[in-house]
What we know:
globular; 14 strands; ten-stranded antiparallel beta sheet; 22% strand; two-stranded antiparallel ribbon; disordered C terminus
Amino acid sequence: MNDPQPGVNALQLRAAIFLVLAVGRTDGELERTRTVCADVDKLVRAVGARDSAGGLSCVVAFGSDIWPAICGESRPAELHPFRELRSGPRFAPSTVGDLLLHVAAERMDLCFEVAAQIMRELGASVSRIDEVHGFRYFDDRDLIGFVDGTENPVGEARLAATLVGAEEPEFAGGSYVVVQKYLHDLPKWDGVAVEEQERIIGRTKLDDVELDEAVKPSFAHNALTTLVENGEELKILRHNMPFGDATGGDSGTYFIGYARSPRPIEQMLENMFVGRPEGNYDHLLDFTYPVTGTNFFAPSVQFLATLAEPRLAREEPPTDPQSQPSPRPGRSGSLAIGSLKGVPQHE
Ligand code: HEM
């Protein structure tokens, strides 16, 4: 199996920067983006070495529109633009985005430094669509005061939930990523009694205990985002972060979900916005609304490394097999001899 980018399954850290960028379409801009993306791990290593306990990582992920120009015609089967949702006053918009950089660390200075270095390398080949600086709020809470991330899968279940496997061998080790930037109406939320807030989330506020099924409403956030298929829970991994302006400007939750298929996340969104059954929607949406919605695919480490290879070499293998001195590893990172040896390390 190819290696996932280290940030995908990292632990909850205290700081993050989410950059959504548009990539220019000229050959030069695309080539530069490819080269920089293939080398992001080097920048992360150099900055991360300044504090080895800082846990610095940067996940690189590509949107549906830019995928062929950056990565080639073969694409992850379920990579498509975010599908907007509308139901009554609730609206989940679909917004553009070619490149997602999800930077995380225990310290914001590490995040800022590596993000700035990557942006310098990308230069004018990209332009900013959105930039959000997230912070951990007290004990892993959202700005609404509830602990966020408790029911994330751990251990083997985490890998099984996030990483593409044998179903798409060419993209194994990669993950689908969905981001949405939610803005909260905090004065409205703060005007609601804690007991009612707990019924909306489905957990107690202070000690983060799940409400008993007997008292948990069917519209609770954690009821509508729990999916069961063939008797098993379908999990996703959330690296959500609070963000915001203290002066009363935009503040909220940056939702970022990783999964081996976008379908569970899409189903959760449908349950939240439209309802399960229809009309039984997530009452958290009476207090918060998304202003962005974009899908990406974060390829494996080995796949990213191939982006540094000249385009023609990657796209058009020579027709005469005799002219090849040795077998080239494919995108799956496999030489078909059951070993990862020989995968170019671009170092
Ligand atoms: C404003 C945006 C959101 C906020 C403030 C928020 C907050 C929370 C909180 C406080 C919990 C309970 C603790 C936990 O298990 O992590 C939770 C659970 C969860 N949320 Fe969200 N969430 C948001 C959006 C979303 C979205 C958009 C999705 C999926 C598309 C989602 C999926 C989940 C899942 C899967 C759980 C765990 C359910 C369980 O297994 O109990 N959340 N969320």
